[in-house]
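Sample entry was shown:

___
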Amino acid sequence: MSTQKHHPHHTHGSEYPTPPSPGPTSEHSATNPEHSATHSTTPEHTATHPTPPEHAASHPAPPEHTATHPAPPEHTATHPATSEHPAPSPEITLEKEFELERMILFTDAVFAIAITLLIIDIKWPELHPEQKGAQLFNFFAPTIFGFVAFATSFVYIGRSWSVHLRLFRLIKKYDQGLINRNLFFLFFIVMFPFANSGLTQHNAYAYVIPVFIYLANLGFLGIAHYRLCRYIILEKPSLSVEGHRAEKKFVYARGRSMMFITCATPIIGVGLWLLFPEHPFYILYSFVFLFLGLRVVKRRLRALYPKDTDNEA
C-alpha cells in the first residue's frame, strides 16, 4: 500500500488552512512591472503611493474643488473694477464752484444797485424866501413821506438780502431751475425802486394805485423767496450740502411764513380801501400788519432757530 505525502502548499478540505502569502518585495515589483499592473491597488497602498503627476493632469479636479479656491490676489489686482460714473476732475469741480460764485456775486450786485436807487427819488423841495411856518411844513411833507418810504424799502430789501444769504449758505451746486427761480426773485427786488418812487412822487390823497403796486410787489417777492426755499430744500435736496437738518427746517419754515404774511398784506390793503373808500390813506395800515406779522413770525420760529453747534447729519 502506497502512502500519499501531504505537501504544505496543497490543501484538502478545511482542516488545512492556507497560510497568507507574503506581499511582493520591492525587488520583485521593480523587476516585474507586469505583475504589479495586474494586481489592484488596495486603499493602504494608495495612501502610501500618491498618484503621479501625469495621472492627475489627465484627470482635472471637479468644479467643487475649484470653487473653494478663488483666484490669487495677484490676478485680481491686475484687473481693477471700473466705475460707470468716474469722479469729476478737479478742474471741472473748480469750474462749477466758480460758476456758483458768479451767480451769488450777480445776486449781491442786484441787491446793491436796487438799494442804492431808492435814495435817488428823494429830492429837496423848491423853497422861496417868503415861505414860513405852516407853508414850510407843506413843502417838506412829500420829502418826509418819501424818506419814510425809502427807510421802509431799505429795511425790507436788507432783510431780504439777509434771508437770501442764509439760504444760499446751504448750496453746494446749482442747476438751471435754481437760476430761473433766483432771477424770478431778483425781478421783484429790482421792482422796489419803481414801486417806491410811486409812493414818493405820486402821493396824492386819492391816488392809491402806487400803494397797491408796492403791496403787490411785497406779496410776489414772498412767493418768489418761498419757491427758492422749496426748490433747494424739498424738490432738489442734492443741490444743498449734506446735514444741517435743523438749519434747513428753520429756513424753509421762515420762507413759508413770510410768504403768508406778505401775501396777506395787499389783501388787507384792498379790504381797507373797499371798507373805507372815503379814507384812502387807511390802506397804509396794512404796513402795520406787515411789520407786526413779521415780528410774530420771528417769535414763533425762535424755537426752531438752530444753535451754532448744531451740525448734525
Notes: Residues 62 and 68 are 11 Å apart (CA to CA). The first helix runs from residue 26 to 31. Residues 1-61, 63-83, 309-313 have pLDDT under 50 and may be disordered. The radius of gyration is 48 Å.
